[in-house]
Design brief:
By secondary structure, this protein is mainly alpha-helical. It folds into two domains: about 55 residues; about 80 residues. It is built from eight helices and three strands; from the N terminus they run βααββαααααα. It has a three-stranded antiparallel β-sheet with strand order 1-3-2. Keywords: Coiled coil.
């Protein structure tokens, strides 16, 4: 009988090569190594284990049982993915809400400090389409006068210039410096 490689037999029988290799490993299928150092199987050996290639009963398991279990697994996976998607969308909504609250706090603090930006930052416009551009008067209406604490007008004290510390030296450098400075 002719001898075929594992790939040829897997294609002919419609089964995975790994299943043939597994059977070869556990001794169910005997094989030989040809002149090209490939594992080859006698066709009669494959017929003994899997039957004739035309007979689908040996090459494929019960397809209705496999299909129904596969479908059920896919349904479960789809439900899990839908749940994960809804959880992530909720988390995203909460994060955007928190970002908006933090932007409002920043606006209020900049107004309380008396700082008004020259232009609106581009990143605040790029992602939010529903956000209105706030003006200084809008922010002043938001901040209550009792919330703002006045800043004392103290003059800024000038400090003397600080000289950098000399480079730190190791033990040998300090000893050498002490010897040379004594002269």
């Amino acid at each position: 009988m002719p001898k075929f490689t594992v790939a040829e037999l897997a294609k002919k029988y419609g089964i995975a090569r790994t299943s043939i290799y597994d059977r070869m490993k556990n001794g169910s299928i005997s094989y030989e190594i040809d002149a090209k150092n490939r594992k080859v199987i006698d066709f009669s050996e494959m017929q003994r284990v899997y039957g004739t290639p035309d007979s689908k009963a040996y090459s494929q398991p019960d397809s209705t049982q496999t299909d129904s279990t596969t479908i059920e697994l896919y349904k479960q996976l789809i439900e899990e993915l839908r749940h994960d998607k809804s959880v992530s969308e909720e988390r995203e909504r909460r994060m955007y809400k928190e970002i908006e609250q933090l932007k409002d706090k920043i606006d209020n603090l900049t107004l309380a400090l008396g700082y008004t930006p020259k232009n609106i930052q581009p990143d605040s416009q790029a992602y939010s389409t529903n956000e209105q551009i706030r003006t200084t008067t809008d922010l002043q209406e938001t901040v209550q006068p009792e919330q703002v604490t006045p800043i004392e007008n103290k003059p800024i004290q000038q400090t003397s210039t600080i000289t950098p510390e000399p480079k730190k030296r190791g033990l040998f450098g300090r000893v050498l410096k002490a010897v040379l400075n004594d002269d």
